[in-house]
Amino acid sequence: MKFKGLVAATLALVVLGGLVWWSMKSKPEVSVQPGHEGHDQGQQTGDGPLMLSLKKDDVQKLEIRRAEGETTVVSREGTGPWMISQPKQYAADPDAMTALVGALSDLHGEKVVDEQTADFGPYGLKEPVVAITATMKDGKTHTVMVGDETPAGGGFYVRTGADKRLFTMAGFAKAGIDRTAADVRDKRLLTFGKDFVTKLEVVAKAGTVEFARAGQNDWKIVKPAEMRADGWQVDELLRKLGEAKLDATVSDETAAKNERAFASAAVAATVRLTDLQGVQTLEARKAKDGLLVKSSEAPGVHALAADALQGIEKTAADFRSKKLFDFGFTEPGKVEVTAGGKTRVFVKTGETWAEGGKTMDVIGVQSLIDRLRDLTAAGFPAKGGGQAEMGITVQAGEKVEKVTITRLGEKHFAVRAGEAAVYELAGPDVEALRQAAVDVKVSQPKPGGKK
Asked: H helices of 220-301, where?
């Protein structure tokens, strides 16, 4: 019995050893192509086997060839901008190229199917569906070839250069590198940097409106006359202009049709803007179902939806700021209000508001500030006049704003110090502001608290 037990144990040990040997033998080894130092030989990462590793900044040219369809060639000088040279010459989208180069620079497959592939033909890799060749700064090239879809679907067979290994790649990974000229073309009609625009001019049927930057977040109208601009509306117009994009997939026939229609269409507006790079222009004309536009930054005529450039036909009056004060949501540090022969001065220290050394109710002061912030013109008359009723000074940061409110009959007018413009105010708004100043009281201790 002991002998039979020993034989059984020996056989079990042999079988177990055989299983371990088979497991180690059948596990595919993942090697690294020459020149891909930094990745351990035989190591497979959590991202799958490494197929291609490139230094992003050294990639100078990408050629994407398709068995059926166009060949796309994109290149750059050093770390300069990417330009498409084939099938036609266009500027490339910086973000799209960063994504494409990034995907190729660290390209992983799903698995290694065969370490020493004798024939790539059955996998669609003798004449690949798409082949992408990256040319480096030193002139060396690296090629990725994508073949047929795997039988299970959702993946594709891949090989790289002269490597004998046969890989599979996920469909989403293929989509990240299989890009057409339309995919990587810069589709922006204007390429300005929004934060660096110093001047914006819009010429429309209603006249010319010209804006100049008056500070980091402030704009003023300089034509047809100098006046304060609603900064939010100017920024919104710039956002619309910056987001206006062409359709890179239109046919040559449609492009020619757009050119002919543009020539006879009525002008909607012409935009000129200046940033650190110079002047850019965009001419928009009315089409049957939208706009046709021509840009200094993108060749051809392009169709846009009617609301794509909403705001370009507005007048100076539409862009004019109707607010009496510019401090917006910047917290004031000092507010002075004179009304009925009495002046009240509120000064903020830390989180506390005080008047004449007495701590004031924060809610009352905040209510007054909200009234000042929301004070809006009902109109812009040619002249005002009347007796002074209120004088208001608001200091927010280093900026000091002074407003005088007068009354003539039943009408109320306001003038900002240093400006000729007259603002007409609604009577109830003036009365509510006056009452808010009166209602600011000394802060009372909480019940049960110390005096």
From this structure: 231-243, 252-264
How far apart are alpha carbons 276 and 9 in whole angstroms?
Answer: 83
Which of 307-311, 327-331, 427-431 holds the top average pLDDT?
A: 427-431
* Residue 199 CA: distances (Å) to CA of 205, 211, 221: 20, 6, 10
Contact 268, 285 (CB under 8 A): yes
Contact criterion met (CB below 8 Å) for 201 and 234? no
pLDDT in tens, 301-328: 999 998 999 889 999 999 999 999 999 8
Q: How far apart are CA 256 and CA 420, in angstroms?
A: 51
Q: What's the DSSP call for residue 320? A: B
∠144-149-151 over CA atoms, to 5°? 140
Nearest residue to 132 (alpha-carbon basis) of 164, 101, 165: 101
Cβ distance 376 to 429 under 8 Å? Answer: yes
Residue 169's Cβ-count burial label (10 Å; 0-12, 13-18, 19+) is buried
Query: What is the model's pLDDT at position 33?
Result: 36
Lookup result for tokens 């084939």: 86
The pTM (predicted TM-score) of the whole model is: 0.77
Query: CA 247, CA 251: separation in Å to the nearest integer?
Result: 10
Distance, in Å, from the CA atom of 236 to the CA atom of 306, rounded to the nearest integer, reads 16
What element of type H or E holds 427? helix 427-438
Q: Where are the domains of the chain?
A: 50-184, 194-319, 334-438
> Which uninterrupted H or E stretch holds 354?
strand 352-355
Show the tokens assigned to 172.
Answer: 């989403």
Cα–Cα distance, 299 to 206 (Å, whole number): 28
What are 52's strand-pairing partners? 107
What are 148's two structure tokens? 């047929």
Decide: 82 and 94 in contact? Cβ < 8 Å.
yes
120 forms bridges with which residues in the sheet?
none
Cis amide linkage into residue 224, ω under 30° from 0: yes
Using CA atoms, how far apart are residues 145 and 135, in angstroms rounded to an integer? 15
Q: Which of 74, 77, 57, 105 is nearest to 184 (CA)?
A: 74
Query: Three-state DSSP class for 371?
Result: helix
Task: Give the per-residue pLDDT at 26.
Answer: 37
Angle 427-438/362-374 helices, nearest 10 degrees?
160
